[in-house]
C-alpha cells in the first residue's frame, strides 16, 4: 500500500487522497491503477481494453507522443514506454530505439500507439509508413506487431482497419 501523502490510499473499493489533484495527476493515477491491474495477468487481446488504456495514457498530451506496449508471449503487459516526443503534429520515430526497448524487456509482441493532439485520429500516410518500418524491423527478431493505435477524440486501430 502506498503511504505518501500525495498518492491514493486504497480502501476496499475507494481511493482517498490527502490533497486535491490536478487533472493530469488524476489521469496519471488512473493509468497507474489500470496498468497495475493489467500487469497482473490480463492479456491485451481485447481491442477495447487496449484503446481504453492508451486513451488514458496519451489523450491528455498537447504534443504528439509515440509509445509502445511491450508484451510477453501471452500478450500480458510487461511495460508501457513513451519513447518519442514531438510537436503538435509530428514526432520522430526511430526503429533502433524501439528494437532496443523490445530487447531490454524481452518482449514477444508489441502494440504501438501515438496521439493526435488535433483530436482527429485518422492515421496519416506517415503513420502507415512508420508502422511498416517498425513492423519490418521487429520481424527480423521474431517480435509480433499486434496493432498501432492512434488516439484522438476517438481511437483508431490499424488492426481493426486491416492496415497491418
TrEMBL record:
Gene Ontology MF terms: metal ion binding; metallopeptidase activity
InterPro entries: MPN (IPR037518), RadC_JAB (IPR025657), UPF0758 (IPR001405), UPF0758_CS (IPR020891)
Domain MPN stretches: 43-164
Organism domain of life: Bacteria
Residue stretches in coiled coil: none
Keywords: Hydrolase, Metal-binding, Metalloprotease, Protease, Zinc
Full protein name: DNA repair protein RadC
The species this protein was found in: Aliidiomarina halalkaliphila
Lineage: Bacteria, Pseudomonadati, Pseudomonadota, Gammaproteobacteria, Alteromonadales
The encoding gene: radC
Amino acid at each position: 500500500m502506498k503511504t505518501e501523502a500525495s498518492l491514493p490510499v486504497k480502501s476496499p473499493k475507494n481511493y482517498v487522497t490527502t490533497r486535491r489533484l490536478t487533472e493530469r495527476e488524476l489521469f496519471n493515477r488512473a493509468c497507474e491503477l489500470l496498468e497495475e491491474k493489467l500487469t497482473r495477468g490480463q492479456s491485451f487481446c481485447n481491442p477495447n481494453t487496449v484503446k481504453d488504456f492508451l486513451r488514458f495514457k496519451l489523450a491528455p498530451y498537447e504534443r504528439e507522443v509515440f509509445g509502445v506496449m511491450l508484451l510477453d508471449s501471452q500478450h500480458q503487459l510487461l511495460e508501457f514506454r513513451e519513447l518519442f516526443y514531438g510537436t503538435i503534429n509530428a514526432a520522430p520515430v526511430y526503429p533502433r530505439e524501439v528494437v532496443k526497448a523490445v530487447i531490454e524487456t524481452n518482449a514477444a509482441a508489441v502494440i504501438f500507439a501515438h496521439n493526435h493532439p488535433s483530436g482527429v485520429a485518422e492515421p496519416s500516410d506517415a503513420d502507415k509508413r512508420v508502422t511498416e518500418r517498425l513492423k519490418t524491423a521487429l520481424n527480423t527478431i521474431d517480435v509480433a506487431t499486434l496493432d498501432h493505435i492512434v488516439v484522438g477524440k476517438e481511437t483508431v486501430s490499424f488492426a481493426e482497419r486491416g492496415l497491418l
